[in-house]
Amino acid sequence: MKPIDTLLTQYLHGKLDEAACREVEAWILADPEHRKQAERICRMEQYLGAAAEMRALSDREILSLAHRNMVRADKRKKRIRSGWLGAAASVLAVLTVGIGFLLLRPENPPQEIRNGLSEVKECVLPDGTKVWLNSNSTLSYPERFSRRKRTVCLAGEAFFDVQKDARRPFYVHAGNVMIKVLGTRFDVDAYAENTAVFSTTLEDGSVEMRYPLHGRKQTTVLTPGQRLSYDPEADRAFIAYVDVRSLTSWKTGSIMLDHTPLRDVLKMIGNSYGVRFIINDASRLNDSCSGTFVRQPVENILSAIECATGIHFKPSGSGPRSYIVY
């Protein structure tokens, strides 16, 4: 087995397969000291990335950034020695201060938003991007986005209205899936604990979804009205045209159904209420439902679906929020 520091570094850069990722995540969660070690490696990688960003800047950009940093650190005017040697030494000092500022600046602490059951939160990220976070979901993001890109991590479901910035792409990481955008409106469903299927639904603009498929990295660009569903366990992905308004109605605390297939209905209810469904007859999943439910108890919604479709629900006995569908 590779040293844990090496595995953590490869994990952060997305170079591990799914099984290895799960092992690393289990190791991090097993002990608070493990989490601290992972955070240390993450900070080190951030610092190295910042240094790499500096190397990618032009001399003019570096000098401008370093000058601003020096002014903040010391507003006193300093006399620069005359002559080419003094000028060269001054430029070297500016470069050193610029890189030192990036590497030694205060830590950019991660921010985190968590949602409980039957709860929707709306927040604004540091760049002005609006996010609606669905029930039982977590969103992590830095206090300040970098100069080159904007990256967030999602567990659960969220709808993003991304602030346009052509110079800084916006990335959403969800498990081993990555979505890249510049400015658009889309939904990401990544409830890994309920289902292995990850999906991205595009309302406006375009998104680029990257994921491993058949042992290779796959990239798919979506157009409005499309949803890409990716199942890593079955190693398959498929695109469908969907009713975006229905699938994103949870943003307003409601469930809006318009001839929506039962498989999607159950997923929406499961995500919003933390309910698990056990399907006895998979052929019924193609049946459709219509109706609008606004902040109603899950029992009322299931009762209405029973009346409309003839499908029945009963508690499974394995937990208070688990139902058998028959």
Folded structure, characterized:
The protein contains eight helices and 18 strands. It has three domains: 4-104, no CATH class; 110-241, Jelly Rolls (Sandwich); 253-325, Phage tail protein beta-alpha-beta fold, CATH 3.55.50. It is 34% helix and 32% strand. Helix 3 (32-56) runs antiparallel to helix 5 and helix 4 (59-73) crosses helix 5.
Fraction of residues in helices? 25-40%
pLDDT < 50 stretches: 69-106
Global structural class: alpha+beta
Alpha-carbon Rg, integer: 24 Å
What distance lies between the first and last C-alpha atoms, to the nearest angstrom?
Answer: 46 Å
CATH class of the largest domain: Mainly Beta
Write out key terms for the chains shown.
single chain; 326 residues; alpha+beta; Jelly Rolls; Phage tail protein beta-alpha-beta fold; 13-stranded mixed β-sheet; 3-stranded mixed β-sheet; 8 helices
Gist of the model:
This protein has 326 residues and is α+β, with helices and mostly antiparallel strands. A hairpin with a 5-residue loop joins strand 2 (121-124) and strand 3. 34% of the residues lie in helices and 32% in strands.
